[in-house]
Design a protein that fits this description.
Thioredoxin-like_fold, 15% strand, 11 helices, disordered N terminus, Glutaredoxin, Thioredoxin_domain, 50% helix, Thiol-disulfide oxidoreductase D, 223 residues, alpha+beta
Length: 223
């Protein structure tokens, strides 16, 4: 999903009026998020150190692969349905690759999905992410923002998050603003303008067939 960074940042400009959503049995609204450009993000008093990196694999693995992905990106869903499973089996589970997943926010629903995925902490993040990618076509196209949010709540409940905890996560305006600032700092530093994008031991690598990703990782491993 190739999108210019300027369009990407503009899409994250959320207002309560544009993204008022329905919660359970009453009308609620997700956090109001004014646009925070990269320069503004640096000036804002936002402590991004509170955001937990979502990591799989051995901490001391010889290769680190960072993926930048959006939960609303169909190419990201395709990657996680195919290549990611091979990557996990061949390299992550064997201790050869430390895999870091960083969210990109093209739009309000992508941010809300991230807030649901992070709601139960790192232990459940990748399991919820899998549910989000598997069901992407359903929740992304659910209809109004209220409908989309309700579908995301269903995924959260399916993952075992109770209603009160789920709603607290979705209504956490401070967390939402911090996530947006964290994302913008990461994307600016690493030159990310499309998803999925990858960093292999710090070097930028575009999405490509798994055979090519595997070859690149093996080259880093010296195999």
């Amino acid at each position: 999903m190739t999108r210019l960074m300027t369009a990407l940042c503009a899409a994250v400009a959320l207002t309560a009026g544009a993204y008022a959503i329905g919660g359970m049995n009453s009308r609620t609204a997700l956090p109001d998020l004014p646009l925070v450009g990269s320069a503004q993000a640096q000036e804002a008093d936002v402590d991004v150190s509170t955001i937990v990196e979502m990591v799989q694999g051995a901490e001391d693995a010889p290769v680190t692969l960072v993926e930048y992905a959006s939960f609303t990106c169909p190419h990201c869903a395709n990657f996680h349905a195919g290549a990611y499973k091979e990557l996990k089996k061949d390299f992550i589970d064997t201790g050869k690759v430390k895999f870091v997943f960083r969210e990109v926010y093209f739009d309000g629903p992508g941010l809300w999905a991230s807030m649901v995925a992070r709601c139960a902490g790192p232990e459940k993040f990748f399991g919820i992410s899998d549910l989000l990618f598997k069901g992407q076509t359903s929740w992304v196209r659910a209809g109004s923002p209220a409908d989309v949010a309700d579908e995301l709540r269903k995924i959260g409940r399916l993952a075992g998050i109770d209603n009160a905890e789920l709603e607290a996560c979705l209504q956490d305006g401070t967390k939402a603003k911090t996530l947006v600032t964290w994302y913008q700092e990461n994307a600016t530093r690493d030159g990310v303008s499309s998803t999925p994008s990858f960093l292999l031991n710090g070097e930028k690598m575009q999405n490509q067939p798994y055979a090519d990703i595997k070859e690149a990782i093996e080259a880093e491993l010296g195999s």
